[in-house]
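Supplementary notes for students who missed Thursday's class. We covered one full example, reproduced here. Read the sequence, then the structure, then the short commentary at the end.
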Amino acid sequence: MGRTSDAKEKILDAARSLIELRGYSALGVAEICKAAGVPKGSFYYFFPSKEALALAVIDEHWAAQESDWKRILGGAAPPLERLRHLFEATEATLAGGQQVCGSVAGCMFGNLTLELSNQTEAIRARLQEIFDAHVVLIEAVVAEAVARGEASVADTREAARSVVAQLEGQVLFAKLYNDPRRLGPSWLNCLALLGARAPVAS
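Structure (token representation):
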């Protein structure tokens, strides 16, 4: 059992790295298996198709990101400060990835949305669920800020969608320009979007 589990993790790790580096469409099963150092038969033992592997990679990535977002957004600090920490953490993650591989990878979910949303319904639907979950997590913080009189938006769900869209768009620009500092001005823009009275102190 340990060996098979190890082989599956090797395939997932290789697929995640290759998807982040090159995208999904250009990858073949043979290349993934070569990078993982496992025989091709091992791939089909765990995954019936490349699409199934991509969904597994997406779910694994989301599990880690969801845990991080809940930790950051669910802390004891005031709501807008927690939201600011999310922006800072996103920039730090991009910068860390750039140091390792030499370029800004961007957001796996955003990258796959641009590449595959009109090609595979299963992946499109899963990505939609994940972005909807992003909105739900952000909305809880926005609603708390509104209740405290620290933000002034009439529709917290739409405001949360706008925050997610802004963050995702800035990550896209960071990838395009290979510069995580593109996220720098995003927080002040977020405050303006939420009708916040003043920047939140550290």
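Commentary. The chain has a mean pLDDT of 90. The first helix runs from residue 2 to 22. If anything here is unclear, bring it to office hours.
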